[in-house]
Records
---
Amino acid sequence: MLDPSSSEEESDGIVEEESKEALAPQASFSRVSPNRSSESSDRLQPSSRGSSARPASPSPTAAGEQEKEDAERLQREEEERKRKLQLYVFVMRCVAYPFNAKQPTDMARRQLKITKQQLQTTKDRFESFLKGDTQIVADEAFINAVQSYYEVFLKSDRVAKMVQTGGFSAVDCREVFKRHIEKRVRSLPEIDGLSKETVLSSWMAKFDTIYRGDEDPRKAQQRMTASAASELILSKDQLYEMFQQILGIKKFEHQLLYQACQLDNLDEQAAQIRRELDGRLQMADQIARAGKFPKFVSKEMEAMYIEELKSSVNQLMANLESMPVSKGGEFKLQKLKRGHNTSIIDMGQEDENQLSKSDVVLSFTLEVVIMEVQGLKSLAPNRIVYCTMEVEGGEKLQTDQAEASKPTWGTQGDFTTTHPLPAVKVKLFTESTGVLALEDKELGRVVLHPTPNSPKQSELHKMTVTKACPDQDLKIKLAVRMDKPQNMKACGYLWAFGKNVWKRWKKRFFVLVQVSQYTFAMCSYREKKSEPQELLQLDGYTVDYTDPQPGLDGGRAFFNAVKEGDTVIFASDDEQDRILWVQAMYRATGQSHKPVPPTQVQKLNSKGGASAQMDAPISQFSGLKDADRAQKHGMDEFISANPCSFDHALLFEMVQRLTLDHRLNDNFACLGWFSPGQVFVLDEYCARNGVRGCHRHLCYLGDLLERADAGNMIDPTLLHYSFAFCASHVHGNRPDGLGTVTVEEKDRFEEIKERLRVLLENQITNFRYCFPFGRPEGALKATLSLLERVLMKDIVTPVPQEDVKGVIRKCLEQAAQINYQRITDYARVEVEKSLKDQRDPENVANLATPAKKLEHVIRLAELVIEVLQQNQDHHAEAAVTSTGDQSAFAWWSDLMVEHAEHFLSLYGVDMDAALEIQSPESWDSFPLFQLLNDFLRADYHLCNGKFHKHLQDLYAPLVVRYVDLMESSISQSIHRGFERESWEPVKSLTSNLPNVNLPNVNLQIPKVPNLPVPVAGLSVNLPQMPSFSTPSWMAAIYDSDNGSGTSEDLFWKLDALQTFIRDLHWPEEEFAKHLDNRMKLMSSDMIESCVKRTRAAFESKLAKSSRSTDFRIPLSLCTMFNVMVDAKDQSAKLCAMEMGQEKQYHSKIDDLIEESVKDMINLLVAKFVAILESVLAKISRYDEGTLFSSFLSFTVKAASKYVDVPKPGMDVADGYVTFVRHSQDILRDKVNEEVYIERLFDQWYTATMNLLGTWLTDRMDQQLHVYQLKILIRIVKKKYRDFRLQGVLDSTLNSKMYDTVRNRLTLEEATASVREGGMQGISMKDSDEEDKEDD
């Protein structure tokens, strides 16, 4: 950008070169040269290049019409360019000297928007992370969160659309991810020493790393800082450059306008403002006189309109008056403050505002620099000389000492004075060499009378030498710089003559002083005086050039200041001074007439431009060349144009629309908000040019609505601000102090109101796509608030909530249809894509099959749940205020529930149609119920809602029918299974069976257990499966593996059925209790049948077994015991109920199991007793006194004399002992319940010991045969020891019956030991040999 304050020499070449081409066609719009330069052709004739290549037109008429259209188009473009140039002039003046507005510093900072390319880059970075291509270390939970975020958010078409609308920023990405992971982190289990906040911050840091990628964070931070700074405060040059881009102004055009308008001259800008304000007052008077008022809603507003115009001008005057007059240094925008002076300045009451001489205060700064003295020859070279300097009436300063041979200093002295014509004295001294000399010797002096117009460079001045100095040609080189104070606008010597002041034609020193922004005085001064001798207050005067006055000698160039009843004539010595004085006084008077120098008038007249004489610009003399160049390039008409003659309402509408377009196309997600610099310029333009606030906001609303209709993201809060302002104005609340309302404003407001209502209803209808994932934050809530405001008939009476709810309810009903249609189309596209990928033409025909329909409906259900879940997560916050209170839109939740129900009802139509064609033999639709029910029952508002109840009504008969079939099937499987039951343990059974895959068990949606066998009397074709085969996961459910196939199959089916029913989570409490009770009762009945059949089989199996010591407990009996064990365990799980009646029923099952187990133990013990009885029966043959006993004894004794006869009866004892031990080992190893084993062993030991005691008691009067004694001793000792090893308690082992048996056998042993042959080592006493034999 060119420096606006650069000199003509620096930029003239560039300007001339560019302007030759760009502005060539401006001389005449009707003549467009065909030989213009290429740049000119490109700018003014964009289609000329193409037209040259077209074939000749078919007829002269068509060619003429084409030329006419081209000429009209060029004329429109030229008029548009002129409008923009004129508008840019007004904008430049607002930037150059603002006195009403300042750049706001409290606006929300806008974030950099994400473009389509940046979104794709972000997707690629997250995809690389998920593929493991990055070095970021993350756990599985974080990876799952990122995966979900990538699939659901980044790949969403709604996000892509939001990027296209220009309302999506990096902050939105981050906030959505943060909200996405908060629920996940909160659901994680607590970890000692690691808080959830730490996990959240760690995850967010990793997210930032992924999002940033390989980009250097320092560069990103610098870029963000620079962009943030540009969003806050802009310098003047930045504002100029911004509006050059907005209005399409070229830099050389800006340069010409800048220099010609003297934007760097604050006095000229303040004078321009005063002229504009004076013109607006005159325009108000003209409107009042002519009666050309805008059309108001009330006739009484016409008088009020004039008062408002004058009041607004007076307010601007007060603001201008509050601006400081003396400014130092560069003018800074941020230091501006809006004036709060509400006083009205009456320009007609001059007598009350007369200035006194004491009101005019000037302060000057003088710099006196003494360089050297020349002509000092009489002094010795080593003599010391120095100079003093003083401003009369002030302090005296002295230079350093120097030798007379080289009297140079370069010393500067600074002084301040209030005298416009001060006297500066400089004296040259030499040190006195005399002993008695009291003062140094003065060699010469010089007295100067500088003015601010005096030369600033150093000059030689002849000094007045003293008599004692022989050097008469003594000169001193010095510079005196007198700075011009800010409130002094011009100074110099003039001739003056007036009626009331300066009554004698005389040359005086004049100073034009600005006392305040609206008060200027022409003051004459004498030398060494701080107060003016005379002064003329310029309020109401008009200055202009005039011809020489006859009779006035002195002065060459005349001008005058005229006021009613008074004329003051001035004259300068040359033309240049006159031009500068007239220009300065023209700025001070604020007059509308623009004086034109006679030389310039002659030039204009020579060109035939009589009308241009009044519009010629006035500039500084040094800038006349710039004005000539501006005139040369056609800029003078824009510079000299009277702002009051323009319709600023239309111009402002244009600049605001172009500014909004520029703002929406910049790098920030502005959502329609202007930047602080743009707000500042627009505020200043409105205030300075009287643009009505309602018109401004109506235009703004219209532009925003157009951009919103075109797809741009617009903040509803911004719409609310402007709409509230307009509504307040139209209804007479005076938000900007204006009480007049035009018919145009009211009509346009009603039009905007209707357009806004349609837009808001459309946004609510498409809330998922207008505010995707709740972004921008709070936009949906603001939209609801704005719609409520739009529906109000006035600004006082609130609209009934039912009316608001009715409008929103209708929108949400349409939203449900739109959303469902979109997910239906999405699901259809997925299906078509999958079929296309499979490339199987038969799949097209299969698409209409019931299975495919059901699969499609389940996929739709997943999408429906996803939509409703996102609505709850991202769009439910509209009912909550910033403080968490739900009083703002408490009804929003109810409407969202209605929306969800309507949305589900649309899905219900497709669901009913898909379920209707399903086969009654199929149970594949249960996962659909579980999917929907799990979501609905977790939602407080949708649980047991309309759709939920419909879903229950739809599936309740299906569940009942399924349970009926399962109950019948299981009961028949029990009957048939026990009929074919081999009672082999399941482990040995399944090891020989083929591997049959059961239905897979999905952890999220448990599969429905299939019915095992067909049910008699029913016409359903139930799926077949083996009677039982152990799934691979059954070991985790059952620790036992020794039950029967039928029982294990039964328990698995009952458990699977109950698990399935439980996983349904039926929401209706009564039916859920009914299902649970039925499951428990059915399980009780099935287990009862199993127990009874097992007991009967046990008894039958035991009855068929052997009664001798060869008997070995078969594994089937152990399996039956294990069935009872499993039945007891499963009854506790499958039959447990909470209500008293069911507990009683459950206790009956327990009693039945206990009785059955008791009977089985008793039967088995009876079998063991019977085997012992058979052993005792064998040794009973040796009873004393029997024939068989005598015969056996004689035979054994006789044979023992010749051969070694084995001990009779030991094989019987060994056989029984072996039987007992084998039975104990089998029972201990195969039966899974320790309690039953202990009970069995206790009863077994007690019963057999009682049998032995009874047998011995019956032979109390007889002496036992030695072989009987040996067998009994061996049996009793081994039994005692074995049962003790099996854990039978000592209290049971050492019973009274055992003591009786032991004592009898001990007594018999003592008797037999004295007989012939003895006991042969068998004794009731324990010995090591017996232990070895046992081993």
Note: The mean pLDDT is 80.
---
Amino acid sequence: MRPLSQHDEDEDEGGKVEMGLLHGSPRRSVSQMPVSGFSTTSVFAKTPVKSTEGYEQIMLQERSLFLAWFLLFVVTSPLVFRYAMGSNIVHEKDTTTLRRVDNVTLHTVTQWDECIDCQDVFGVTLFNLTVIANNVTSPNPDGNVPSLAVFASQDFDHWYSVYAPKKLKDAYIDTWQSTTFEIFNGTGFGCLGGVYHNYLVICMNVFNIAMEYSLGEKVEGPPFNDRCFQVDGICGVPCVSSEDAPDFRGCEAGVIDKDMMVSNETRTFDTGHVKSEWMSNVNWVEWVVLVTIFFDTFGNILRFMPVLSGRPTELESARSCLCEGISVLGCTSPFVSEDEAIFLRSLIGRSVTIFHTVGGRHNMQGMYLDTILNEKRGKGEANRRYLWYAWMEFLTLLARIGAEDPDDYDEDEEYEEEGFSEDGDEFNDDKNDSRGENAVVGDNGEQSKAINRQTSAASTHVSHPRKERRSTLGPRASRATLSQVPVNIRGRSSIADITSMTQTSNQPIAGSEFGSLRVNSAEVVNYDKRVRSSTIAGTNTGPSPSFRNHEIFARMSQATRASVSNPRASVGGGPKLPNIARRMQSIGEATADDPYAEFDDDFVGEPREIDPFDAEEDLEFDMADLLPLVCFLDGWLEAIKDKEWTYNYRKKAEALESIFNAAPLEVYFQGNDLLMAHNCLKNLYDAFVGMQEDEKDHGMPIHPELYEEINWLIVRRGLPDWTVTWSYMSRARLRPMSDKAMGNPPLPPCLFESTRIKPGAIVYRVPDADLPPHDAPENWLAARAATYKVVRFERSVEGSVVRVVPWPEMDRPNGDPFDDRDPSPICLSLQEIALIEQNRGKAGALNVYKDFLRCKAAQWVAEQGIPGPVQVFMAIIDARHMLAEPEIFWNDALPFFARNKESGESAKDYGEMSAGQQCIMVQYPQFFTNVTRDDFLDNKNSAYYTIWQTLRDCGKTITSSGTNAIWEITNPTFSYATTSRIEDTGTSQKYIPRYIAVHLPCFVAYGIAKQTEDYIEAVYRWSTGAVELFWSTIFSPQFSDYVLMLVLCVVFALSCFGSSGFWYVLWIIVLIATAIQASTDKANGRRPLRRPIVSSTIVMNTMYWISNLVSTVWMILIPIRIAFYSEVPLSQSIHRSLFWGFAALLLRAPPAIMTDRIVNMCRFLSLKTDDWNYSMVLWRSSQLYSCSFAYSTLSIITGTGNAFKAKFFDRDLTMWSSFRVSDAAFKTAWDKIARAESFCTCAFFNHLLDYFNLCLKSIIASFSMPDVLTKWWALFLFTLQITCIFVSVNITNVGDTTGIFITLVVCGLNTLLCIDITVLLFPSITLVIGRPARPEYVFAFLGCTVVLSALVNGDTSLQQWNEIVKLSVNF
């Protein structure tokens, strides 16, 4: 980068540099700006981050409704469980000891009045009944007063009350000791009944039952001592002579047999009162259901807690902020085995993003390091590196083709028109003096050279009437304005809209329809980037070719075509040509004598020369000169986005052709430039459809770092410069080899996998911090290229030291030594060494790149002479994701990292104190374009990326999703978490307690979703990572988060299940204390309740797999209980069954309504989601949940084992691999069998045995493959629901309409949840039921059910059917 000139250092009266206009003051470095109050040279917000007007209203409305329902939810949810515990309503019972009574004597005096005193009732009346009671024993003499009741019967089976006292005192006996009690007719003594057999029983009791019975009321017969503590009776035939009356039972000498009146036992009777028994009559199934619902309810409380803290972030608010200052931006994509089509779309999106970041609205200076991070060493590495060079050549040549020719206009005339003298400002013509070396460390430690490729436009000569052009690197005149656009760049004349721009107004247009590029301090270019298939021919997909028969091609001669094509782009160059190559063939069809007659001399004159591509040359471009390239790349990106959903990425060749056919060259280039640009594109296509052979295996146990870079300096007049470094990096990887293969080196044996330094580990010496920062990257690469093996630990007076020896301890395959280091052991402290490959997975790659990015930042800061460190940001874009909103990704994220220039605090008020409000991460949601509506596995995971991330953003406790994230890594202690295979969640959990994490609801990248099997493996990996993270958190200081949530859970559990009302009152007190704490936090400038919200986020992230396990309660336990046992849990009585109604109203409805409030926020905040069917999004997540038990169980087993291996044996948790035996292995084994010369040779049988071994290994591996387990589990669930319906209808609930209805509802819902996944994993089922299921087959299934049920129930028989058939056919 060229040094700052003296006249660039201007300041205004306040000591602050003002960004001058193009002609008033030249471009200047922001590094000269004074930084007061903060030690780090950072990104400063020139204007604050403010919310839009509609945002405040929507958020106030939705959050108010949310908080009201949340309050209702947390207050009433314990009452639902308390109702379940107390809803076992029982009738109070009492017991009476039935004992013999013998001390009551009855004396009667009768008078027969011809038996007619009973009036209408034929019978007798007993006059003057006298009861003489002696020595009566009372159950409670002090508290009870005995009373009398009289019962009568004529058959000893039917008994009636025959005494109804008119006065209360007539029913009571005066004393317990000895008394005579007389009953007269006047007191209500009634008729006895028939004239023959009559039984009369006197009942002495303490409950005054005589007053409760009416005269003649039917009563319960003997034994009478269940209600009487003394009883006696008489019997006789009052109206006829006893000799004439038949004998009747139990009557001896006018006295009833005592054994017939009483029973010597204890009896229980209903008192008539009811009561509720707490936690009674609840079986184990109901307890399981209650506990499941309890934890689901508590989980909902934790899930919705972040909304208590604040409002979600609005993307539009960032656009009100202009930033200035200095920063280093790094963007990396770890590539493993992605194909060329995915690689190309990633390159396009990344490149456009670079230009829109550099040419964005902010007044910033910085360095942008874009790195392709190759993870797979050896196989495919040479080809990927070659493709990266091909892309860099393509960009460089197009940038030179589109560069403005200084001879296209009269500079003096233009200066006069603009009011400037001929001695106006000029660019500094000094050539870039920064280092032009590509620090590449190969196997031999030497710098590798760039791939020597022929370039199409390098030696192109096309007739042109203008003067000879000059390279963008050569001396060039300053252009005052873009108002005169060159006619040969169509995009700048017919699409671009040149507008002036100040620093505080006329902001660039942002969005998906229009692009903007700030080319200098005075001008911004707004252009329509909507390139559709109608604009670009040949963008359709399919087997039939489409030609771009543009007029400009049709009128050219074969000679002109030949002059602009190099050998690789010649006609017929390659066996398989896409539309872009066939377009070159169409040129030869023109036969006009004068192909240039109608093109305004565009192709007449001297040719234009373009310098060839040199990978070792640092380049300098003016932002205005890059306008055609940027417009073309932006249009290409828009064309891909428009057709992305139609591209078949399963077929690499077809996808590549579709992407290349979408390139809108004709829109942004014309004339000779179009021909040269087309030829560059053809060369790029040749590179991507070709294949570079990998280098011969070097046979060494380590692949050192391979790094190459190309530097661009992008100049914007009146604005700070940007250094853009395009780089390719393959990080060092260890290659496990046996001691024999390494020549049996001395002990200890090499440890190729270890996360801790111990004997045998492979390490490197950390570069000295005192080394000059100008060479920091080279020193870092050189240090990692010189590896050592740890021999042993030793003690010294200075403490523990490590004795190491140079490694590998073997010669190269050609006999040369690995390096020229002294093989003698050396002693180093632990602080001087680090593991060369501490972690093999993605987290390890990100940490390596993070260290290198800091080295590059230190080098750039030193070269620019910037005092102090700068903010360093690292973006992660996974290989399968293409940046689709280049103007948003960095430009709208940086304001949330920006700081106040005076205080160093965050420019965005997050409601936190200054010590904790700095943003550490900005996360964009993921979006997948190749997922259709049949997303039964929830491959898009849209519910998490939109709804739940927006919810968590209210508390600024966002969890990174791995890609589409920007991290600030300025702090030298920052590192990506390696405690599990989900480094995104682990890193978020590591830093959100101290920093802010923001979610910006905009789909800035388009991803390619994994296939079915790969996606199931992915969700299994996430679940396993959560288990690993759970155990690592248990053994870390963050265990306190579990303790805090455990205390809250215990209080909530006691309020739900505790019998005392005190526990519910305690829960209400906790809620009140929480509200007071939230108010206190807000009053003191803190984000309300962020501490418990952080804890809840950590608990939810690390324990969500528990909810997957309990899915079996709803999918298995309850259907079986209803269908096979005819028992609906918690429904023994009508009172208890109301629990399900209260649960639906108070436990399920409020979370659904609160979710709808979050959905409304998402519709407002998330661009392009206002017409989404969020209900379908939530349904898809429920479908995956229903079938998640199999892979979740496997993840618990695997994750727990891995966590303990990492804890006690230093195993690496960041690496994972596929479970299946690859198809390539099967193909290779089968090819060996097919190539065998004879079936009788030993080689044939050996190859056959190898093939069978692969088959056996595949079968055994299937038991640990999550996709296979999930496949069979889904089929089991589907079959179980059908079985439960059949059993309930035909066996257990026959005749019980309620039981059948409940079975159909429960099993029918479960069937809807699992049938789509079952059909997806078992496509053969569609041969039976169709897809979607056809009504004919559904009715046929129901018909079979009816027929079989009739046979099983015995309602009909085959013989009866035979008779019916005979009758129907009249046979």
Note: Confidence is low (pLDDT under 50) at residues 1-39, 109-122, 406-512, 532-607.
